[in-house]
Request: fold
Amino acid sequence: MPGTADETTVVETEVLDFLHAYFRSTDIAAADDIFALGLVNSLFAMELVLFVEKKFGIRVEDEDLELDNFRSAAAMADLVTRKRNAAAGS
Reply:
C-alpha cells in the first residue's frame, strides 16, 4: 500500500544515498535542509528533480517545483509518497 512509513523510509534512504554520492565529506540527515547548508545550486536542483522522477517513477509537475518539496530527503520522500498516492487514487 502506498504511503506507508516503510516506503517513506526507503525513499529517504535512496535520496540520502544519492546526496552522499555528491557530497561525500558532508554528513546529511533526512531532515537537513540541503539548501540552507549551501549544497544546492540551480543545476543540482534540476538534477534532484530528474533523479526523483526517474528513480521513483513519478512526474514532477510545475506546481511541485517548490523549494519546500526538495529541501531535504524527508521532504522529497513526502513528495514521492503524495504523488504515488495521487496516482493510486486516480
Remarks:
- The mean pLDDT is 93.
- The helical segments are 5-22, 42-56, 67-70, 73-89.
- The CA atoms of residues 72 and 83 lie 17 Å apart.
- The first helix runs from residue 5 to 22.
